Amino acid sequence: MRRTDKEITERALLAHILHQAQVCRLGLALDNTPYVLPVAFGYDGHALYFHTASEGRKLTFLTANPQVCFEVEHGVEVRPHESNPCKWTVSFQSVIGYGTVIELTTATEKIEGLNHIMRHYSGRAWPLSAQDIEATRVWRLAIERLTGKQSKDKAETRWIA
């Protein structure tokens, strides 16, 4: 990372940002075509979980190339300057990660993956119908590498894990 003064190296803070983020952006690639899209997600400390419909562009990319990149951010705030547009800045914390995606295919795996997502947003697991489980494709992104970055004002802020 070029700006080591903004680098986040503490694993607990990286996990905190992942738990607090509301949207995950997946970076996919097929041949020489990139594709970035937002997804709802869950995080279990080692992997991300997301779901898809049974067909679509995302599936074409995922099945052709399971190597993906992802990005989340937390605490984003634009900080304008009253008189100098070159002094505007953004306060933030972000995590970028890389990994391999695998599809979860058994009902048990799919329920577990979907409930990671539901716990992320609601704090609890939910009962899921067999019809919903059958109609939904669920994916696990095994995280292989993480990096984090934050604005200087966030680095000085205390946080609770």
Q: How would you characterize the overall build of this protein?
A:
The chain is an alpha+beta fold and 161 residues long. It contains five helices and eight strands; from the N terminus they run βαββββαββααβα. Strands 1, 2, 3, 4, 5, 6, 7 and 8 form an eight-stranded antiparallel β-sheet that branches. 25% of the residues are buried.
Indicate the radius of gyration in whole angstroms: 18 Å
Task: Report low-confidence residues grouped into runs of 5 or more.
Answer: none
Number of helices: 5
Report strand %: 35-45%
Question: Given the C-alpha coordinates, what overall shape results?
Answer: globular
Helical residues, percent: 25-40%
Number of strands: 8
Structural class: alpha+beta
Average pLDDT, all residues: 90
- Biggest beta-sheet profile: 8 strands, antiparallel
Head-to-tail CA distance between termini: 24 Å
Features:
27% helix; 161 residues; 8 strands; 5 helices; alpha+beta; 8-stranded antiparallel sheet
Question: How does the SSE layout of this entry go?
Answer:
Elements (H helix, E strand, L loop, with lengths): L6 E2 L2 H10 L3 E7 L2 E7 L2 E2 L3 E6 L4 H8 L2 E13 L9 E16 L2 H16 L7 H6 L1 E14 L1 H4 L6
Antiparallel strand pairs: 1-8, 2-3, 2-6, 4-5, 5-8, 6-7, 7-8
Offer a quick outline of the entry.
The protein contains 5 helices and 8 strands; from the N terminus they run E-H-E-E-E-E-H-E-E-H-H-E-H. The protein has 161 residues and is of the alpha+beta class.
